[in-house]
Amino acid sequence: MMSFIETYGGQLLAKTWQHLYISGISLILGVLVAVPLGVALTRTKRLSTVVISIASMLQTIPALALLAL
Question: Name one GO cellular component term (predicted).
């Protein structure tokens, strides 16, 4: 293990920071979309019904893909 870290330590650190950066950006974008959408859904019954229906349909897609395997 130590030889791996000695050989690839710099690359491992760079890839770790790259992963954290990408994860952080996606988290921030998700919050920027989800919070205003959540506020809007709590205020509008009709909009909440539409968005929840669409989200439910989108959640079934991965399950259908697994069944196709």
Answer: membrane
- The answer to whether 51 touches 41, Cβ cutoff 8 Å, is yes
Task: Give the model confidence (pLDDT) of 13-44 as tens digits.
Answer: 999 999 999 999 999 999 999 999 999 999 99
Distance (Å) of CA 31 to CA 17, 24, 36: 21, 11, 8
Q: At which residue do the structure tokens 């690839």 appear?
A: 8
Q: State how far the Cα of 39 lies from the Cα of 47, in Å rounded to an integer.
A: 11
**Checking phi first, is residue 19 left (phi over 0); if not, alpha (psi -120 to 50) or beta?**
alpha
Say what the pLDDT of residue 67 is.
82
pTM value > 0.85: no
Distance CA 9, CA 4 (A): 7
